Amino acid sequence: MVIAVLTYFLKPEYFDFIVKPSARQVYERELKKTPQDLEQWKSLKQLALKDSITTSESYSEFVQTRIESPFAAGYWVNVAQGESVFATIAIDTIKPSWILEAYDIQGKLIQTARVTDSSLALQIINDKHQRLQIVLQSFLEKRDSTQLKIYKQPLLDFPLPGKSNNAIKSFWGVARDGGRRSHEGNDIFADRGHPVVAAADGRISAVRDRGLGGKQIWLQDALTSSSHYYAHLDSQLVTTGQRVSRGDTIGLVGNTGNARTTASHLHFGIYKSGGAVDPKPYIWQIPIPENSTEMPFKSRGVGFGLSAFMHQQPSASSVSLRTIYEDTLQIIGNSNDWYHVRTADSLAGFAHKSVVRLIEINSSTH
């Protein structure tokens, strides 16, 4: 027993198959040999956790590291119930030297990325409203560039194959019956007879023809612990108790029930234990971002021009954080035409390339 304890403290890596340390813990174990490096590494993580930038639903960035500026940055993501979050970076699988993690709003680590082929990838599926922070940090000795992507995806398939977001013409919460009730679903329009598919694997819990929904199907989905409601169908092609797979055709679009005076469409709803929830995030199709273009890069820049403002997102319409006129900036990376920058007082954001002048690390800023 004593030998085992001593071995753990002297050679903890021998017990990794039991303890299963995170990539960060393994790297910090190596850095204990050089305390000043360990202190720098930990301070960079804290710097990233203080970042306040918020990504869009489909975000990409070209990131680089330099000798004088190891990479560390934090990216907030607002996640709706029904969405999952993906974060990936391209890596050299021979010796990965990046840390990619997800933290909750209290700063608790909830997931560390795993190596997948030539990438480091996170996939977070919690099926609830939340705000997450993705942290990307390079090893101190890393001198490289990579493509970072952070994007959201719906948990379910779109219930009408061949159709997309623009086929949804009526959304959650719209007033019905003169305001006496609200719309508890999405109306997705298509020609009569268009296939309706199972949005997830599950079991058909009911097949009915009655009331406002007319011909309807209920599907019990274990993935999201919910019931899917398909209404106004022209035909039902499944039976109660039947098991179906994601993408199986279960019915055909129609206008039965109280939709008999409207154009044919599918009313798609989702019900959880507390009642109906907005189905839009569960099916809303979000494009996977393309790689961000690489812009000219130096470790430092200076803001210039009266329109030199830092924004929360890489968009002129996003929240303006502050002016950066004549401020010296650390250049972290770029999201297409926007530099990801950090000010001397550690505020991170985005500045358009037109208001950033790149400078040599030892040159004057004026």
From TrEMBL:
| Species name | Nonlabens marinus S1-08
High-level lineage: Bacteria, Pseudomonadati, Bacteroidota, Flavobacteriia, Flavobacteriales
The terms under GO molecular function for this entry are: metalloendopeptidase activity
Q: What is this protein called?
A: Peptidase, M23/M37 family
Residues forming the M23ase beta-sheet core domain are 182-279
UniProt xrefs under CDD domains:
M23_peptidase (cd12797)
